[in-house]
Amino acid sequence: MQxxxxxxxxxxxxxxxxxxxxxxxxxxxxxxxxxxxGSSPYSYSRVSNPTRGLLEQTLxxxxxxxxxxxFASGMAAIAAVFQLFEPGDHVLLPHxxxxxxxxxxxxxxxQGKLAITYVDxxxxxxxxxxxxxxxxxxxxxxxxxxxxxxxxxxxxAALGRELNLITIADNTxxxxxxxxxxxxxxxxxxxxxxxxxxxxxxxxxxxxxxKREPLAARLQEIQIMYGGILSPDDSWMxxxxxxxxxxxxxxxxxxxxxxxxxxxxxxxxSTVYYPGLSSHPGHGLHLAQADGPGAVLSIELTxxxxxxxxxxxxxxxxxxxxxxxxxxxxxxPATMSHGRVPPDVRRRMGVTDQLLRISTGIEAxxxxxxxxxxxLSAAGGRH
Length: 383
Ligand SMILES: *Cc1c(COP(=O)(O)O)cnc(C)c1O
What we know:
- The chain has two domains: 3-243, Type I PLP-dependent aspartate aminotransferase-like (Major domain) (Aspartate Aminotransferase, domain 2, 3-Layer(aba) Sandwich); 246-379, Aspartate Aminotransferase, domain 1.
- Helices cover 37% and strands 15% of the residues.
- It has helices spanning 3-8, 50-63, 74-82, 99-110, 124-129, 153-163, 175-178, 215-226, 232-242, 245-264, 283-289, 307-312, 343-349, 365-379, and strands spanning 67-71, 90-94, 115-119, 135-141, 166-170, 188-192, 206-210, 269-273, 296-301, 318-319, 329-331, 355-359.
- Helix 7 links the parallel strand 5 and strand 6.
- Helix 2 (50-63) runs parallel beside helix 9 (232-242), helix 3 (74-82) runs parallel beside helix 4 (99-110) and helix 10 packs parallel to helix 14.
- The radius of gyration is 21 Å and the shape is globular.
- Bound molecules: pyridoxal-5'-phosphate (PLP).
- The site of pyridoxal-5'-phosphate has 15 residues, from helix 3 and helix 4.
């Protein structure tokens, strides 16, 4: 079955009890356990809930893992994964990392709960060099946020197996429609389902999918103990969003490709970071491990172009944090997602003040190109 079909025809398509074409939202917090009334697999909704369970099973099937877990946000999912570590453990993180994950890791390190080293995960050599006897895990984002660097998932998975590391991939930028790190040998996939999975900028959610035991059992304990679970209503929202993930991603990716080509030819833009461009250093590797370049790109405006001016002239694209919605979103990592990252670290990540991240929506490409054309020309003093 093709992936776009699977997104519609999954375990959540037909409600088992009623044959409804949309699953019921079970808001009950507790479940009758009187043996006189028969048995239920459910006891209390923090432990497990039928609606959340459907989402967890669906995501698990899409990522091809053994168990899925839905959380109240991407950060709740990431925080749950970080609970796998113990004081003394050392973890390798990419030096261009989602700002919230960076903050969490720094806070754990400052409290002495974790030792961390930032590495260039696109260089196997750099990763190898920073391994210590205490290294417990390797964490990647590929493409990375916001500079779209590509890590070799298969090679890093092999290294992880060799050195007995837990390999973790934040797959938010790709979604399982385009990339399945567990199939390439990773142990854990994380999602901010707020982005492409939900897809409409109207729900916050996170997910973790595990490929092996004992990680799955441990993650389940953590989910129950810390309790950062996704509500039944929001689980339903993500299930609803998932049905159109393929359709949205195809269109958003096509728009990203055309916008990236258009922006590459503009004098106001010095660099375009997009794995779909043959000039991108990770282009070949990315296309070998994923089914497409995705719908996120970043651009570096030339020093002559004031970011604020450019943004003020956008009429269609919204200027906001987040990505993966049906609307085009332009964001300024240096003051938004990476605003709390110290300036010297931001520079190491490649997050300059002239860098803008773009997540293309499903708008007609003509309208998008016209919007960027107008804003670039106006900011460049050509209107
Ligand atoms: C947004 C995002 C997160 C955090 O997810 P929330 O749902 O906002 O908590 C983590 N990783 C990446 C790559 C993201 O884009």
